[in-house]
Amino acid sequence: MSYGMEIFDSSGNETFSTTDSTWTLLGVYTSNADTSTNHTGVPIMTTRIVTRIMVDQISGDDESYVHTYSLSGSTLTTTAPSASETVKTVFMVFGK
Amino acid sequence: MAHGLLVKNEDNEVLIDSDFIHYHFLGKYTHSSVTQIPDLLGGSDANTYGIGGNSPDQNKGTQNMPSKGEIYVFSVPVNGSTPPMCFIKPTSTGSSAPFTAIILTKQSGSNWEIRVFQSTVTSPSPVLYCFSPLSQVSNSTSTTHGLKTLNSSGVVTFDSRFKPLKAVGGGTITSPGLAHTGSTGSSWTVSLGVNASSVSTSFTTQSSASDLIYYCPSLAHACQQYTHEESDEGIYDWESYAWARSDIWWCFYRSCFRIASTSSFEANYGVFARGHFYEHKADTTNVFAGLILGALTGGVYFAALLAAIVAAGSFTSANVDGGNYLPYENSYRNTSGNAFIISKASYYD
Description:
The complex is a heterodimer.
Chain A: E1 6-8, E2 14-17, E3 24-31, E4 37-40, E5 48-54, E6 68-72, E7 75-79, E8 89-95
Antiparallel strand pairs in A: 1-2, 3-8, 4-7, 5-8, 6-7
Chain B: E1 6-8, E2 14-17, E3 23-29, E4 33-35, E5 40-46, E6 70-76, E7 85-89, E8 100-108, E9 111-118, E10 127-133, E11 148-150, E12 156-159, E13 169-173, E14 185-186, E15 189-190, E16 199-202, E17 212-215, E18 221-236, E19 239-259, E20 264-286, H1 299-310, E21 331-333, E22 338-344
Parallel strand pairs in B: 5-20
Antiparallel strand pairs in B: 1-2, 3-10, 4-6, 6-9, 7-10, 8-9, 11-12, 13-22, 14-15, 16-20, 17-22, 18-19, 18-21, 19-20
């Protein structure tokens, strides 16, 4: 490495450097079942990725939609596709 | 940033920003138990034996249904409200590897319960590499070397001593629509196995596929069914007879994923739950008397079957949520925009 930064542990092994890549957590947002929600104040980074998690186990009795979303600026807009069969969804926004 | 530390990598991507929380390695976990969704089965026979011309019961159950996948249950010791990121180290990679995904992430006391679904049963089992914000990590270290950042509230946001998450690839992937394409059966033989073409997406080429781990919780599911009905009537041994039988088989599929190569990530389905219900009626009467079954064939039977499924019992005995797993017919949900992140196990082993 001719430039950049390297971090070593006490044994001299490199643990992190500017040749690496990572995703930094910008925020965790929860949209409740059957409800569309706008989450504001989402930090901005050049590249962002949104992961979704179904928090509760689906029972098989309903259609178990997850919220759809769009991320623009500092607003994460989440939409419940069904007013009665959309599950609680956790959004984790990462940036780099 | 008014104060603090901001480090960018060679691609001008943020690597360390002291304002934001970074995920750090929590540990490597194996499952504590394995389960499957029990089959949902039911039906009724009425006077079906010994009746001339009656259709036998053989080969009308679950004999031809596809095998179910397994659910591995993990308990991850992370005490906090921010969900851990659990990367799957699959049992194998390549075009014949099983598909695997997290289907449940749920806080349970001071732990998080993670359930991993795999499309086929294998040995060994998948392993989880879990990450969490430092505030939820109770690991300790005696080393004094490294770099540590704090945000404006004095909360540690990055500490190189605890192996921060490194990513080598990522993106979004779309799951197939229907899990089974084409005919779903013929006569009494059901055909509901997963045959959809896997959907593939690429990531930056790595040196070894077997070293890769991935984070991609399952969102998509599909449900498909096959129905068949037959009936007959006639005269046998001086008696009039009539029989009718209607069957419905279905599978509920969950999306799951695999590392197909050093640069390819694939999505498809596994059979998560399955069921079979039937209604079988038959009767005889003296050849000179009238028949009673003629009006009961057709849609009446299927209506009765669907009513029975809705009223089916729960699955509490297998530690999975109850349900009939037939929430819709021959369709799918949540197939698009599933984000994934790729890392390497060797960073943390």
